[in-house]
């Protein structure tokens, strides 16, 4: 069996369950993001893969070899910590060569590999600098180089971007993804930032409250969230309480709307949540003919931030967001009576 | 407001430093008796510390005791502080508290305890007895500084080291020891200075067999003044300032004294 | 960390064997000997045999020694109050200095704090002497007609002890005052309080735990002073610590010295305990 297998793993700290009955499997060479709010157990899961915490129950294996209770220093992993955890008493070069040195590699070998790695992370020639002389972004690169120095089987990153400022974060996401693709190393990144996960991952594991909610490719998760938690956490959603009237029809605010997908196979009469994404939703002036699949509402706020225009519409006390671009020239303002059009292909339903 | 503040500061500073200034000027006095303001200028009383056999042997005794006791104290403190910090072993925490206790109590209590112990075991007056006594009395200092140093180590560094292939022993050797070393040296220095200046415990363990400098000074005060005492006071103050100055330059003194620094 | 997979804990405990022997043999046993000795029989020869004899405690409670204990406590309490009064504003100003100035002061204060009590007593003896003391300065300034000696006296003991305690008081207050959130002071000032009012309504209450624990430490420290009361005072100014030394070394009465040491221990312990209890929850 190739790749990483997490088999029915549970972790309890006293009465608190951090991870509950999680089973996952990933192929070699993939980049996986554990995505979820803080306290959802994603870091604990990563630490169990690293061997820094032991599971209470369950097994973890790499390429068919059971790793569950192997100590971290024998696991063949490379890890980047949230704080980067660079050794302050060692130079940049000594940090990167640390793993090789304690394995008895010669000074020359270490120097050569360090040089190679510094070129890989676009920081050539900084071997002799102190860690305190580096900027946040440089520290992150050094931490990455140190973790990759021993060609580990699995590359683990715990919230690697959280210590960087916003601009740097975005460019580093792309750079890290390109680096991973170039090396073809199995990589797991823990993050609470959905944009980061969408940017980098082959596969996203959405976690909440010690459980895995959904596993899948980024676009698939975005388009077909399996429940309210995932829909809320990944991107912005309009979620409106509605009632099934037919397998492909719902009743909302007295209007009958058609839906494209009913994956839950909810029967007529079931209370459901209508789901659609703001960028699919259009706002129409009342002056025009009422479009199909629409409900009436009142514009409560227009947030025009240049690149996008967000229109918040109050529909019988519930807020519906429509996200448009200047090209759509929506021409609405707060207080205006409008129709909110939700195209059939954009509508699906979730359990309440 | 500022006038009051500065006057107050000046008064406190004068109170703190004034006696030292008087002692220094007396120590440079060229006459054979104490007078202030001093008459003449001379280093003869400093030369006397090293030239006079009695003063010099007291100085040697004090330095040997201080050095050995500090070394032993650091050696005893390191495993205790490490076990308490790294593994949170309850027994190690008990040892830590026990090790700090002697320093907190009025020193005469420990002095009496050592006097009783060494007379009972027949070791009264042995040179090693005062070394042991100073080790135990001053053990608190390296315990506290080393614990502080260890607490300043981010636990992530240890985990990072593990993920890079280091076992417990290697982590200790390559990460923990180098990072805690400045604090251990500071503990050694604190110990050294305080042992050098300690009087009552030395008196009660070896007071009638070996003279340390503080004992010799006390005896000298009782039998009459000599400006050598003033020169020793100056010498000691200079040694103290140099040692603490070095700690301040190479270590983080405000942090060691418990203030949070940026 | 207990959660981390690692080697047997036996090896970890092994490194604690030498420190355990050191602390057990050279602290716990000597310490217990004081308690045992305090109830031992004193023989005419000056030696003693272990037993259970409460005579030494009876002697304490029926002689002038109980008065000396009360005097020691009052003296130590006064020194604690005086040195905190002097040290608190000083430390407050000190924490506001630049890092460099602050460090220089800290180095000096540490150096003075470590200076042998013998040397401090000697310095003040000179300052209080007729031939080279501060009265000569007063004569030179024309304030006095002729120099005179200020020691031995109660005032000399008091000044010497405050000098001994002051560096400790400063260092004990330093951490709390440097951690003091300066925005609290700014907030108070934006609300219209003068610097003096801010000091009394914000700085002082916030520093209460440090003041109390600093006071306790200075109290215990002063209880332990041995040389200053001897050199700068008359026998009537001797504290319990001096009397213990006197009994142990010059009167060879170890059991009575031990009984006095136990009393001294209980006095220090009681103050540390009671104040710790009063201060509970307010510290960090």
Description:
- The complex is a heterotrimer of chains A (352), B (262) and C (284).
- Chain A has 352 residues and is of the alpha+beta class.
- In chain A, 24% of the residues lie in helices and 35% in strands.
- Chain A has eight helices and 20 strands.
- A six-stranded mixed β-sheet of chain A has the order 6-7-8-3-9-10, sandwiched between helices.
- In chain A, strand 17 and strand 18 (318-324) form a beta hairpin.
- The longest helix of chain A is centred in the middle third of the chain and has 18 residues, at 166-183.
- The radius of gyration of chain A is 25 Å and the shape is elongated.
- The relative contact order of chain A is 0.12.
- Chain B has 262 residues and is mostly helical.
- Chain B has a single domain (51-256), classed as MetI-like (MetI-like fold).
- The longest helix of chain B has 34 residues, at 53-86.
- Chain B is globular, with a radius of gyration of 22 Å.
- Chain B starts with a helix and ends in a 6-residue tail after the last helix.
- The model of chain B has no long low-confidence stretch (mean pLDDT 86).
- Chain C has 284 residues and is mainly alpha-helical.
- Chain C has a domain at 60-99 and 154-272: MetI-like fold (Orthogonal Bundle), CATH 1.10.3720.
- Chain C is 73% helix and 1% strand.
- Chain C contains 14 helices and two strands.
- Chain C has helices at 9-14, 17-38, 55-62, 65-96, 99-114, 117-127, 134-140, 154-179, 182-190, 195-206, 208-223, 227-232, 240-250, 254-278; strands at 41-42, 48-49.
- Chain C starts with 8 loop residues before the first helix and ends in a 6-residue tail after the last helix.
- Chains B and C meet through helix 1, helix 3, helix 4, helix 5 and helix 6 of B and helix 1, helix 2, helix 4, helix 5 and helix 6 of C.
